[in-house]
Amino acid sequence: MADFEPKIIIFSCFYCGYSAADLAGSLRLQYPANVRLIEMPCSGKTDARVLLEAFERGADGVYVVGCMEGDCHFLKGNIRAKKRVRYVKKLLDEIGIGGERLEMFNLSSSMGPRFAEVAREFTEKIRKLGPSPLNKGGDCR
To answer: Edge-to-edge strand order for the sheet containing 102-106?
Structure first.
């Protein structure tokens, strides 16, 4: 497992999560190169099907980044995303993939250092879990 590099997919809200990622880049903060950031108009647009499809396509771990609770630009999108993540975590446990491979984080646009920290911590967590049971060399696209 020492040479295992997990494939991580991040579904990120444009207003806060993506801006935090941009800030992390501007500050030249280091985080793993194996994370793939997918910009969403709102974390609330990330539905269960999309989360499951990421695992189907070879992701070892997935997380959603939304605005801080109470600060969603679309009012309650991040609350909907949180409920969907909770639901899909249960599904992942039931089908044997493991709900711990999916998480949700709330960040503001000024939290570039926290974005990089979350990326590093989540990648390490997935590295310890090992490859996803579904990972058959998918390309995560």
So the answer is: 35-40, 8-13, 61-66, 102-106
Cα 3 to chain center, whole Å? 22
Looking at the domain assignment, is residue 114 inside a domain? yes
Q: Check residue 117 and give its pLDDT.
A: 97
From the list 118, 112, 131, the residue with the least C-alpha distance to 35 is: 118
**Domain harbouring 48, CATH code:** 3.40.50.960
Q: Please report whether residue 79 resides in a domain.
A: yes
Dihedral over Cα of 68, 70, 75, 79: its sign:
positive
Question: What's the predicted TM-score (pTM) here?
Answer: 0.91
- pLDDT > 80? residue 36: yes
**Token pair in block for residue 93:** 């446990």
**Segments forming the whole domain that contains residue 79:** 8-129
Contacts of 113 (CB under 8 A, 6+ apart): 24, 27, 29
